[in-house]
Amino acid sequence: MADASSPAEASAQAAAPAYPLAGVTVLDLSHIYAGPYATFLMAMAGAEVIKIEPPGTGEHLRVRAGIGGAALPFAMLNGNKKSLSLDLKSDRGRELLLRMARGADVLVENFAPGVTERLGLGPAELRAVNPRLIYASSTGYGRSGPYRDYPAMDITVQAMSGIMSITGFPDSPPVKSGPALCDFFAGIHLYAGIATALYERERTGKGRLVEVSMQEAVYASLSSNLALYHGNGGKAPARTGNRHGGLAESPYNVYPAKDGYIAIICNNNRHFHALLKAMDREGLRDDPRFADLKSRVGHMEEIDRLVGDWTRERTKGELAALFLANRVPHAPVRGLDEVVNDPHMHARGSLQWIDHPQFGRIVVQNSPIRFEDVPPMPLVPSSRLGEQNEAVLVDRFGLDPDEVEALRRDGVI
Amino acid sequence: MADASSPAEASAQAAAPAYPLAGVTVLDLSHIYAGPYATFLMAMAGAEVIKIEPPGTGEHLRVRAGIGGAALPFAMLNGNKKSLSLDLKSDRGRELLLRMARGADVLVENFAPGVTERLGLGPAELRAVNPRLIYASSTGYGRSGPYRDYPAMDITVQAMSGIMSITGFPDSPPVKSGPALCDFFAGIHLYAGIATALYERERTGKGRLVEVSMQEAVYASLSSNLALYHGNGGKAPARTGNRHGGLAESPYNVYPAKDGYIAIICNNNRHFHALLKAMDREGLRDDPRFADLKSRVGHMEEIDRLVGDWTRERTKGELAALFLANRVPHAPVRGLDEVVNDPHMHARGSLQWIDHPQFGRIVVQNSPIRFEDVPPMPLVPSSRLGEQNEAVLVDRFGLDPDEVEALRRDGVI
C-alpha cells in the first residue's frame, strides 16, 4: 500500500474501513465460473484483482454476455475487478505477464491441465521470477492422476461425481442438480486455499502452488447418501426424490399447495405434534401408526397422503403463516423471481440492485463471507474489456505510455 | 508451538512437513455438516482442532452414527480432531471454555443465532478474554435480517434459495438436489472466511467475527439459471431436466445406455462432428437441420432422439471408449459404488480406505485443497467422545489431573 504523504491523508486512510485482503494483488487469468468466483470473493475482501483476458473478445463468459446469454453472471462475478486485455500467446504478452508477476501476490487460473506450461507461464516459470507468488489452479480432475485430461464441465463432473445418480425421483432417470455446484464448489475451495497460503506466507515468506479439483471439491457434499450407501451397500435406493435421503424420517417431503409447493420436515415428535396442531388434527397423536418416528416411517405413504391432501387446499402463504405460528419446520419452494427479490437478502445487503453501464438494471450479490466491523464492500460494476489497460500498466506497473500505445497497436493488449 | 529443547529435536522438526496452518488452535463447537467440514479442512491443513461436544451423547451426528445411520459422514468429517466432552450449560463448563479461548486462535460454531449469547459465550464475551480470537459463525440465514430465526436445514434452504425450483424435469415437481449443498457451501465459505481472518490477524494483530449464511453461500451457484431468468424474465422455464439450463445447446443431455446413462455435451460444431464420427453418421454434417448450433437447438427433439436411439444399443463403457477416441465431451452417470471406488481419486490420495476402530473398513476423503510440497495430511480416525479429555485439559491447557477428575465426577466433562 502507498505511504501516506501527509497527515491529512494518513488520517483519511485511518478512517477508511480496512478490509482483510487490502494490499493483496491478484493476477486473474480465469474464466467462466470457478476461477472468477474465487477472485470475486478476493476483490470483495479488499484485494486488487486484475482480470486478464484475450484481446478482441475476452473470456468465454464475456463472449456469451455479449450475445445476451450470460450478462448477469458475468456482471455478478466480475464486479470490483480491473480489466486488462493481454495476448498471452505472444512473446511480449508473456514477458509482460512475468513482469507483473514480480509485483503480484497471487495468480489464479482455471485452464485445463498443462495449458499455462505450454504458454511458458506455468508455476515453475512464475515462481522463478517471484518465489512469494501463490499460484492457484482449478481443474476438473486435478493436475495428476489417470483422469487428469478428462473433459470437465459442470455437467460432466456432476455425472462422474455421483451427484446426478442421487438427484431425482426413484421412478425417473437421474437428473442434474440445477445449480452449477461443481464449478462453484471448486471456486470457493480455491479461494479458501489461496487465503490459507497467504496466511502461511506471512509466517514463512514463501508462496505455494494451491490446487483444487472439481471432482474432489464436491465429494463431501454426498455425505447423507454415502451414509445410506455405507449402511445398506448395494440395496440403498439411488434416488429418493424429496424424501429423506435415508428414508429415515416422516413427514419429510415437498407437498403440493394451491399455488406451488412447500417443504415440511418433522425430525421428532415435537415437530410432528406441532404439524398436527397446525392441521387441527391433534386427535391423530395417539394413532399407533404415527406414535413415533419409527412407526411414522413405516407408514410414510399414508403420512404423505394425509399431509398432502391437507396442504393442497391451501396457499403457500397460508401454510407458512400456520407453520411459523406453530413452529413446524418448513419452507416454501421459491422461484427465482422470489429469490432475486428476497426482502431478507436485500435487507442484509447481500443482494443489491445496481444500474450497470452495459447491462442495465440488474441484481448482484455481495460476498457471502462477512467480516464484522467493516461494511459490505461497495459494489463496482464489471468493466469493459481492457477498460483499465492504462491504469494497470502505466500507473500500477510503471510502463511508459508510449510502450502501452505500441502494445495496443501491435495487438498485444 | 513448543520450543525444541535439543538440537536433535530441532532437526526432526525441521525435517517434518510444514503444513500451512501448523500452530493454529481451533475450538470447535459445531455439529452435523457445515461447521465440522470447515474444521476438518483446518485440521487437514495442519491446525490443532479440539472438537467440543456435550458429555454423554455428543453432537447430533455422533448420536446418529451411534444408531448406525451416519457413521461414515461422522468419520469423514471428524478425523484428525481431538475430542473433548464439555457441558457448556454449566458454570464450570463455561468458565473452562473461556479459559481455553484465551489460548486459542479460532472458535467455530453453527448453532442457531443467539444460542452462544444465551450461554454467555457469544462473540463479545469470547473476544473480551482474547481480542486475537477469530469467532466464526455459520447459520441458515445469517445473524441479522427478517429471516434470522427461520428454521434452517439443508432441505429448507434448498427450497428457499431457489435450488429446488430449478432442479428436475419440466413435467415433474421440483426436486431437491441430492447433495447437502447448502450445508457444505456454508462450511467451505466459513473455512475461507477464517483463513482470510487469520491472514489479516498476522497484519493487524486483531481477530474478527466471521459470518456465513447458508442461503447467501449458495446464491452464486444459481448463475446459469439467473442468466436465463434475466434474459427471459417470467417466460424462462423453471426446470430443464438434463438439458442445458438456457436451452441454448444441443446435443446436451443425459442419454440412455444399455447399462445406465451417459451425459453428452456438444458446445460447438467441432464437438458435434466428433460425435457424428463416433456414431458413424458423418453424412449428417451437411443436413441443414444440424448445420450449426442455432439450427440444432431448433431441432433439439430430433437430435435427442437420434443420439438416444444410438446410445441405448451400447454400454456406458463402449460409448466412453468411442467418445474418448473421438474427443466428444461426455461422462458416464456413475453410482456411489463407482464413486467411492474411483481409481483416479484413490490414485491421487484424495480417497483412502482406512480401518476405523469404531466403524470398521470405510473410505474417507482427504482435503480437496492441495498444497504443493507437502504430502496429503495422514488421516487419523475420528475419536470417541472425550477420548482426549486429559490430553487437552492437562497437557494442552495446564489443568491439574485432580481438577479434571473432579470435572468428570461432576459431569462437567
Automatic annotation (TrEMBL), chains A, B:
It comes from the Bacteria. InterPro entries: CoA-transferase_III_domain, CoA-Trfase_fam_III, CoA-Trfase_III_dom3_sf, CoA-Trfase_III_dom_1_sf. Coiled coil: none annotated. The keyword Transferase applies. This is CoA transferase. One of its GO terms (molecular function) is CoA-transferase activity. Keywords: Transferase. Pfam families: CoA_transf_3. SUPFAM superfamilies: CoA-transferase family III (CaiB/BaiF). The lineage of its organism: Bacteria, Pseudomonadati, Pseudomonadota, Alphaproteobacteria, Hyphomicrobiales. Transmembrane segments: none annotated.
